[in-house]
Amino acid sequence: MTFTRDTNIPFSRDSLEQLLKRRFFYAPSFEIYGGVAGLFDFGPPGCAFQNNIIDVWRKHFILEEEMLEVEATMLTPHDVFKTSGHVDRFTDWMCKDLKTGEIFRADHLVEEVLESRLKGDKLARGETIKEEEEDEDKKKRKKKVKEIKNVKLDDEVVKEYENILAQIDGYSGEQLGELITKYNITNPTTGGKLEPPIEFNLMFDTAIGPSGNLKAYLRPETAQGQFLNFSKLLEFNNEKMPFASASIGKSFRNEIAPRAGLLRVREFLMAEIEHFVDPENKSHPKFQDVKDVKLRFLPKDVQEAGSSELIEKTVGEAVASGMVDNETLGYFIARIYAFLVKIGTDPSRLRFRQHMSNEMAHYASDCWDAELQTSYGWIECVGCADRSAYDLSVHAARTGEKLVARQMLSEPRTVEEYEIELQKKKFGPKFRKDAGTVEKWLTSRTQCELEDLSKELQENGKITASIKGVEGTVELDSDLIKIAKVKRTEHVREYIPNVIEPSFGIGRILYSVFEHQYWARKDEAERGVLSLPPLVAPTKVLIVPLSNSAELQPMVKKVSTILKKEKIPFKIDDSGASIGKRYARNDELGTPFGITIDFESVQDESVTLRERDSTKQVRGSIQAVVDAIKDITYSDGNWKEGTAHLAAFNSE
Amino acid sequence: MTFTRDTNIPFSRDSLEQLLKRRFFYAPSFEIYGGVAGLFDFGPPGCAFQNNIIDVWRKHFILEEEMLEVEATMLTPHDVFKTSGHVDRFTDWMCKDLKTGEIFRADHLVEEVLESRLKGDKLARGETIKEEEEDEDKKKRKKKVKEIKNVKLDDEVVKEYENILAQIDGYSGEQLGELITKYNITNPTTGGKLEPPIEFNLMFDTAIGPSGNLKAYLRPETAQGQFLNFSKLLEFNNEKMPFASASIGKSFRNEIAPRAGLLRVREFLMAEIEHFVDPENKSHPKFQDVKDVKLRFLPKDVQEAGSSELIEKTVGEAVASGMVDNETLGYFIARIYAFLVKIGTDPSRLRFRQHMSNEMAHYASDCWDAELQTSYGWIECVGCADRSAYDLSVHAARTGEKLVARQMLSEPRTVEEYEIELQKKKFGPKFRKDAGTVEKWLTSRTQCELEDLSKELQENGKITASIKGVEGTVELDSDLIKIAKVKRTEHVREYIPNVIEPSFGIGRILYSVFEHQYWARKDEAERGVLSLPPLVAPTKVLIVPLSNSAELQPMVKKVSTILKKEKIPFKIDDSGASIGKRYARNDELGTPFGITIDFESVQDESVTLRERDSTKQVRGSIQAVVDAIKDITYSDGNWKEGTAHLAAFNSE
């Protein structure tokens, strides 16, 4: 359903944010206690909108693609995130002003300070700053750098600054420290000296149980909970590959300095899919269905050449040319696009940006972000990464549990592999209670490790190893163990699946839809409208009796009863306010339809149906009007066809 | 829909738990890492079942009662829970064995040890222990007390033990310590001495932000987030009272020693309602609709007299007699009952138990728990408390924000109240930046406090106070402030609402439904059936082609397409297993309907519909069968009426 938006009012983020707060879509948490940065509560329309988006997501992905939904706990013991790499690498760099105690995120600080110096240089050179730049600048100054100083820089320095800013996401902590020293970057408010950057882990930590000894974290993503359940899920799926699991739930990141409202928060809702696939076959059975979808891509080579020009291609072309690594990745990119458009993002402000080699996680083999354009710039809202076999491999290695899938081979094949032979009779008595642990350790060695062990055994007549959970050094001599290359005929191929992961930040998507669908009516800046698609709008219908005369009440009741029966969410506004005011209030709430009940309704049981965006009205019987609403909202109908059988109506 | 369960197999918790694990309803979290007590993950059928229950809850309460849904953050700063009392009082008592490092929950340990001694006494006296007692006993011994010793006790001691066990929930830490000393209770495994009980706070703690100075907790209930948003919600509701807010989300309790599977966990889903009501008028407009509902009550006076005999009464009688405090509380009790029965709990194993005076929270004025009977005993699954004005009052006092509702008086009334008059001209310059804080402090004083301050001012010519956020002592002399009793005519009455809180532990309800709906077919202990009501069953339909012949595929596709269009969740089982095996698998998953496709289907497009509990079958066209499923599942239909238009079918 698209309507031309007849407006001459430019977008104002301030007005939108006021509206969202006034109508309690969301608000800072604990506001009466002064609030906490990066935490927000959702009020009734925010909740309903979010629930509807989740509902669409579940139908679009989980039901449509027959995914296996999982709900894992948020509390996660230290060992899991040690293995996944989060304990060591899920960090940002911060620097402290020891005098004031203030803490800055190092990369953001360098960025802001250099940007403000470049602005000052422009002013000093008598150049004007473009309006949008000024806006951007105002926003920033609200945060750290309070004023732009008119100071001219050497041409060389300008170039250096520009070069640094282009690479700002790629610096290590040490490099950031060097930049801070070299360019004399200080606390922007006091000019005070800053300590060198130190690493700050972004996971919230806690401890489980009364002893305090079991260190734990709040998960920063839902993915690990899905990987740990891989074997149970594969079994549930009758051992069939490929398959996908999915989780919807809260995750947590202890941001150093949250800003930009819902876009960077400390507690947020995610929806993540882990699609497990054979690394030797990443084709997708439904790729045909999406191959002609045209999308706008920003591949890494274009970015590396310093451009941000978008390339328009079909998904089929993108995969065929190798720009997108494989069919499964391409299939999900197209499905993500369809989802985002369905819930109200503007396709002309949506692009798929590929990660550059230096920004991609070390384990990923390809990664595309769905980015939405907002007043804060292009925002990553969905990540779609090929995580390869990284996660399953590291958890398997750490726990000694096999995390593999099996494929029946159409014809058997001969393989030559190292195998272990244990003298069980001697082995058991020697290791006693540790026998199980030692055996598990041995059977979980890779072929390369077995080759090494076999050499050690040959050269020294024994193997020595330290095994987690077993005290002291473990010794195995050739009486106990033999390791030899053995030829076997295999009927089954065993492999560690690769994972393709579409990961959705629901709060960011939600906020972007607000920006894409917010406008104000012509010449009336204060009459804001949120044109949320009917499918996801918090409330679908507002019932408006023309006056609060008792005569109209039975009809209000009648319409309510029918809407309730049809399970269409509605509200009644029988306040004394004028019809116009009541509709304006609901335009702000994004309610797509209004049913007006007047004195004629009492005579002939007809009502008026109003469409939010066009303010067009039609008239018909209650049931005909409700049918139209149902059709447009839930069955992909549009206004024109959905109301074709109703009479046009012009209000006096 | 009820069917007589034709079975001769007694309930076995072991078999049920094996089934739930085998079919991945849920499983211990991080199992490949050894697991963590009290944390569980939900697999696909568990997720779907839980989502369906939440969906019914949302419709039954939020939509039907027009509640305002809120989603507040789980991360909560220390100050909020300091005010609510959780920092000081949300604790259990634990005692430590310094030698082994083991930690015991004090009340549970005393209970177990004394119970096992009573058993030992019975054995020593040559009495037999009843089978259910033995079961109960086995369960316990699995945990701490490993064996029952045949030791006869003095008759006096037996009485003392029994008396203690009857009051075990009411002891303070000090009292538990005295019992441990007096009865020489030690570490049941080693006999080692225990340290005196110390308090352990059940909230998980963490810190927000990089400095680590902002101490925070994971919420142990969703309620506080709703109270803090009270004023925004009242405004959203156009200032109309009464109204209710509702939240669905995770909460966390760091249990000392979790046990009993899903019944006592450390991370759990709650659904909570906060119904805000005028303390002077707790009537409910829809009470008439429920007053004739008959329920089984266990009021406090019956319990205090040592009995647990249930009293059957209508809700109307319960409120009229004063047993249930007010209409709103009674209304919710009836609505809770309707919800629990709708999702599959057995009404004959459901009771409402009133809290006794000594177990009720200090702020509550009445509290009833919906308890469900399981193999673990009667389990509290829903609490329904009248929290009075406690929460809003303490948060208002702490923050200085008014948390009140207003009522237009039909006729104005005269009140005489203490009022403050400030000399603003002197006040501002004196306190400068603190002026706002001091003024806020003054205006948030109660009438009693104002009376005291007025006396102080009269006697000493000044007031002195220490005010949070202001350094040093604040002094106000009579030049700055006057406090006097003033007569005013009021047109509006201002009051702090009371709160009635129905609070649902979703995991406990879920598990109880499993126990109430699990059975095995006659003479076939291994053929478990989960008779989940169709409305909440994870999958509604299993499509079963008679063989995997290609000839049947088009019909499978046809049936799938229709079910997808009707948004009815289904699964296809085209594995090679026998029809019987395939149905048995789905009986375990609680799938209520099966559609069998055979070679006749290819001829005339008819299919067979099988009902899970009775295994009855009927036959008709695809559309007729799907209509019957829809009607029974979503429109409160039953098998008999829903399939009346279909032909009976007897399989060979």
From TrEMBL, chains A, B:
BP GO terms, sorted: mitochondrial glycyl-tRNA aminoacylation
Residues annotated as domain Aminoacyl-transfer RNA synthetases class-II family profile: 203-538
Ribonucleoprotein is among the record's keywords: no
Transmembrane domains' residue ranges: none
Molecular function GO terms recorded: ATP binding; glycine-tRNA ligase activity; transferase activity
InterPro entries tied to this protein: aa-tRNA-synt_IIb (IPR002314), aa-tRNA-synth_II (IPR006195), aa-tRNA-synth_II/BPL/LPL (IPR045864), Anticodon-bd (IPR004154), Anticodon-bd_dom_sf (IPR036621), Gly-tRNA_synthase/POLG2 (IPR027031), GlyRS-like_core (IPR033731), tRNA-synt_gly (IPR002315)
Entry GO CC: mitochondrion
Catalytic reaction list: 2 ATP + H(+) = P(1),P(4)-bis(5'-adenosyl) tetraphosphate + diphosphate
Localization of this protein: Cytoplasm
EC code: 6.1.1.14
Keywords: Aminoacyl-tRNA synthetase, ATP-binding, Cytoplasm, Ligase, Nucleotide-binding, Protein biosynthesis, Transferase
Pfam families (alphabetical): HGTP_anticodon, tRNA-synt_2b
Enzyme class, spelled out: ligase
PROSITE patterns named among the record's database cross-references: AA_TRNA_LIGASE_II (PS50862)
Known partners and oligomeric status: Homodimer.
Similarity annotation: Belongs to the class-II aminoacyl-tRNA synthetase family.
Protein purpose: Catalyzes the ATP-dependent ligation of glycine to the 3'-end of its cognate tRNA, via the formation of an aminoacyl-adenylate intermediate (Gly-AMP). Also produces diadenosine tetraphosphate (Ap4A), a universal pleiotropic signaling molecule needed for cell regulation pathways, by direct condensation of 2 ATPs. Thereby, may play a special role in Ap4A homeostasis.
Protein name according to UniProt: glycine--tRNA ligase
The species this protein was found in: Lodderomyces elongisporus (strain ATCC 11503 / CBS 2605 / JCM 1781 / NBRC 1676 / NRRL YB-4239)
